[in-house]
Write a structure and sequence with these properties.
This protein has about 325 residues and is α/β, with parallel strands linked by helices. The chain is built from 10 helices and 13 strands.
Length: about 325
Amino acid sequence: MNFKDRRILVTGGAGFIGSEVTLQLIKLGANVTVLDNFSSGKRKYLPKSNKLRIVKGDIRKKELVRRIIKDHEGVIHLAALPFIPDSFFYPGEFFDVNTNGTVNMLWNAIKTKTVETFVHISTSEVYGSAQFVPMDENHPTTPHSTYAVSKLAGDRAVFTLHKENGFPAVVIRPFNSYGPRFTEPYIIPEIINQIIRGTKELTLGNIHSSRDFTFVEDTANSMIKALQEKKAVGEIINVGSGNEIQIKNLASKITKLSKRKIKIRYDESRERPYDVNRLICNNKKARKILKWKPKISMDKGLLFTYKWAKKNPIKFSAPFKRWYYKN
Ligand SMILES: NC(=O)c1ccc[n+]([C@@H]2O[C@H](COP(=O)([O-])OP(=O)(O)OC[C@H]3O[C@@H](n4cnc5c(N)ncnc54)[C@H](O)[C@@H]3O)[C@@H](O)[C@H]2O)c1
């Protein structure tokens, strides 16, 4: 897809990954509509541009989605409740947004007749802990949280609706992403925030688990490529760097950026229950079909993120205090 003046809808476009997708699409010349309820996304993360239209609204609203999606040629669907610890407190809301919201988006896309490709953003969490590494798209799905189950149900709905209707859809499964404009206390923002607040001792749970981190510019780029590449239609594609790092090693890498002496302490009370202990991406399919590869090294990406966080301090609220679950 040549993006010049193409009309692309980005749900969750004010969020961490969505704002990067929006920026890149605008740079490519697309006209972008962001649909976001701003539960975690922020207006200030979006650029000022005459190529951008921002709609405040909920992906679960049938009439609104029907009206907004009309006339768009591509959809990148990122809007979701993404933070696993929140799903311990509000499992029902996760299914409502991540599963039902996804069905509402896709069903309305099918009805428009203008949408050429629908890219659904899933997650590596649907696989659960690695049973073999690196994890390809045939890895069994044994999700460990209601977040992951609600995302997997969304994926399967996208896949069946794609088959039943012959409608062009792609499922992208990103492994962990990091970078500036984060919105949730994911592990890297959590470590950076503790350091910025001046701690002499990082307190972390699950330090022995390992993850595969990709810089957000690379993650976002894979989603745009998925919209472009005809061969991606009907495919599930993993997106990740292919490199594994243990959380305690990640923490010491980040502490070095502060140039201060900081200890790392394991705190059992911060341990997530039933956590996934290992995720590493096999990105062969993304390389082949999307012609995608990660470009930013972890050292460069972490430095960039750390500098951004120092300039843009964010105070996160605890899951049970978050306003949007109360509405
Ligand atoms: N961050 C990661 O490492 C990661 C990894 C794998 C998959 N993902 C997936 O990528 C997507 C984006 O994640 P993120 O980390 O950028 O999270 P995020 O919270 O920053 O972005 C989600 C966006 O969706 C919006 N939103 C939430 N509920 C909505 C609703 N009902 N209607 C409209 N908008 C709504 C939020 O305001 C926010 O802007 C999610 O689908 C997530 O599951 C993220």
